[in-house]
Design a protein that fits this description.
By secondary structure, the protein is an alpha/beta fold. The chain is 46% helix and 18% strand. The protein is built from 12 helices and 15 strands. It is globular.
Length: 357
Amino acid sequence: GVVYVRVQVVLVTGGGGSIGSGLIRQLIEARPSQIILFDVYENTAYELLHEMQPKATELGVTLSVVIGSVTNERIVRDCFQRYRPKVVFHAAAHKHVPLMEDNAREAVENNVLGTWVVCRLAEELGSSHCILVSTDKAVNPTNVMGATKRFCEMILQSMKGVSKTEYAAVRFGNVLGSNGSVIPLFRRQIEAGGPVTVTDKRIIRYFMTIPEAAQLVLEAGAMAGSSEVFVLDMGQPVKILDLAENLIKLSGYVPYVDIDIVETGLRPGEKLYEELLMKSDGLIKTTSSKIFIERQQEISQQEMDQKLEILHQALQRGDRESIRRAMKRVVPTFRDPEEVNREASEQNRLEQRVQEG
């Protein structure tokens, strides 16, 4: 399924991150001619380069590193002009929900403007594929981070029919073992003798491993046709409370006796239930049992230009409220978490009553 990268030059932005490095590990096996690891953070890039170098040499793959931010158009342009990547995986993004609530400007600049830069350069310099790593938090977003990722998907949609480059977004849930994921946090809390903190006992999330996520991104890239949003089947959602209890048991302790579990309250922008799919009836099957295409409304270039102008004006004002208001104008599905969580709880209560009745 990954023939499209063989003997090609492949660029991975955010290549030192959790998903980016997972992609690079699997890409090497597909034997592209060259992989460019683009990242703003030199340490992880350096570590990955050293770790993968022997394998790359053995398979005849050239590994190159470019240090820079995707928001710096000059550096991204230099990178595209110098290496002429055929396939681009855009994984560079800020992803931590509570941090981005307080750093809305950086979230918009890095996620939205960075994606705009990468998408335009992919088209201008003749890339065949440009694949965006997205998240289930982009679905009916309740936070700035999710709203920026939804806007990134819309940027891809606006390229449909305008560009020869095949664009696609791949959306998945939480990745186990990624930087800042919940399991390492729980482990540290257990080692310290507790308590293990859960923001809300009702909270549910979808999980998959880094290799699974990377594999599905590569597969979806092979199917990219015209600015689709691919949705991955993440299996059954997990109650974070169950996860905490199981980890305590696996560590040889008894929950609530040896190690306590305490509720700390939902964080800003946090949702009780992540929705992977907007509406399941809107999904189109693909050749992979785990990958679906979500039907999207088309967005014209003109409409996209207007939306970007609204964001630029808000960024010039620069205060958090202006940026949040602007994000709500450009992403119609962006709502406040309180409202969404209240509706979800009511819906859940109704469903339980039906089951009990």
